[in-house]
Amino acid sequence: MKSSNVKWGSILRIAFLTLWMLFILFPLYWTVITSFKVPTDIYGQPTYIPGIDFTPTTSAWTYLFGEGKDRFLMGFMNSILIGLISSFFALVIGAMAAYGLARYKYKYGPMRNDDIAFTILSQRMMPPIVAAIALFIMFRFFGLLDTKLGMIIIYTWMNIPITVFLLKDYFAGISADLEHAAAIDGYSKFDQIRKIVLPLAKPGLASAFLLSFIFAWNEFLIALILTFQDAQTFPVFISGLNAQMEPKWSIISATGVVAILPPTLIAILMDKYIVSGLLKEQK
Amino acid sequence: MASIRLNQVVKKYDDNLIINRLTMECKEKEFLAILGPSGAGKTTILKMIAGIEEVTGGSVFFGERDYTRTSPQDRDLSMVFENYALYPHLSVRENISFPLKSPKKKGQFSASEIEKRVQEAAKMVGLDDKLERRTDQLSGGQRQRVSLARALVKKTSVILMDEPLAHLDAKLRVQMRGELKRIHQDLGATIIYVTHDYIEAMAMADRIAVTNNGELQQIGTPEEIYFQPRNEFVATIVGEPPMNIFQAELAARDGKVYGSWEGQTFEVPLPGSFSGKAVDIGIRPNNINLVPAGSDNSLAAIVDDVEPLGRQQIVTVQVGGRMLVVKSDRDRSITLGQTVHLQFDYAYLHLFDTVTKERMVL
């Protein structure tokens, strides 16, 4: 009686997870096959299986890496550069702020640690569009419009709340006694952080970096307003494909597939830290 | 050089007074135990000696040198933390060698010297076959030993220990007590040892400092603490079950002083001048004897509970409405509800002031 219950339970679970997986993967699959379709296959009856429903063509891909290469690569490289550099700064500045909030007690007028943390987090509470006009005027004043430096500054600002929030709890989870022990063992504050805190915080740092990069990689609205040509980011480039003449869905899809790669690659590279961090928590 | 002196040390967190004007000294090469209940400020005292916690007032001396504002890395001491504080990303070997590889000691030890010292320290705590393990693969007792080895490897003249045995099981604890005592003798180091367990303190320490609510209650040899407790707090923190303390009215009759308590009277060895006063009488459970009915100076009591402990037993009795605890040899004839007769061993009677709770000196 009981064993058949367990069996039904696991069958239901597997069935549900399979359905859910299909639900998640289908858009991805759709994007990939669309990148191999010709317009008639896209606008006609829905077609699902290459070689049976429709004849795949690589025309979109040859366009991306041939005729359209320059603009495609520029958007791609801009986003990589802006994403990596802004995530790096957000990580460094955020980690320092988070460490301070986790280890020391601050008192600025009525502000205590929690108030400071909330103030930092509140930067992400309003929709970014609220600040868009002000940012545009500011950027024009400082000559930062359509520059990579400008976008790096913006994304660093937007990512710091995330890194601070994530890392504050992470640092708080590392026992202060470890640093005390290192102090007694003859290590200065700087060496305590270098030898003890940072190695232990690797999983948290990796997660924070990954989240920052994904955000910077995907951000569209602010990039659309503040970049036009030289500093155009990848999402803006993709949407631009839509705006010229008729939307070229196969090219958009091919670009979309490429856009998935960098965050995936970073996630794979950092996987071992993130997983080891999760395992440590369980003990 | 390695004596440690606290002079009028005060510690406050925000407005909470944790340590109040603490003055005490740990002599060179002494094993000093700081004994107190949780919240007594024991760990804070240790951390102030280590320099991890800053003192709010007063000063800390190592020998003749004022170390009050010296940072921990410059104090040249080692410490065993209650939670071990092992570096989880390092192996046992790396943990133990960590103090020798500090930037301050750069160039001081060759690789072979470090290896020799690590082996030596690991052997001392019986971990020389586990050096390559990760610390999360070790049992609690083994982690404790790593933490101890890390403290020993520097060969400092001062070692601080914060409840190092608290998380070990009973058997290992007894074994480690012996080892710590041996290590103390071998190294000739000054050891300050924080504990809430009076047995640990009595078993290992040369002297015990009893603290409560951030104040020093008494400092003295284990014998002094046990046989001449300065106040009721010290009297009850050592000994298991704790000392019985009750208030008796004194009256003189026929040139002798009698105490009366819960309607019964018994002789108290005090001069006649105490007549008419009240006094707190303390008597340890093992200093109360069960005697036959009609014995001199005996009190009648009703047995409330019997806990057999092998050769001995703990008997809780009721005298009037109050409880007394008696520890005696195992006697199966004692049953619940039975009336027994108690006699105090006068040599071990403690007298305390009813108001100040201080020991009365006759």
Overview of this protein structure:
Chain A is an all-alpha fold and about 280 residues long. In chain A, about 75% of the residues lie in helices and about 0% in strands. The two termini of chain B are about 40 Å apart. Chain B has about 350 residues and is of the alpha+beta class. The radius of gyration of chain B is 25 Å and the shape is elongated. The longest helix of chain B has 18 residues. In chain B, about 20% of the residues lie in helices and about 35% in strands. Chain B has two domains: about 230 residues, Rossmann fold (3-Layer(aba) Sandwich); about 110 residues, OB fold (Dihydrolipoamide Acetyltransferase, E2P) (Beta Barrel), CATH 2.40.50.140. In chain B, the strands form four sheets. In chain B, strands 6-7-8-3-9-10 form a six-stranded mixed sheet, sandwiched between helices. The mean pLDDT of chain B is about 90. Classes of the chains: A mainly alpha (about 280), B alpha+beta (about 350). The interface between A and B is medium-sized, with 18 and 26 residues.
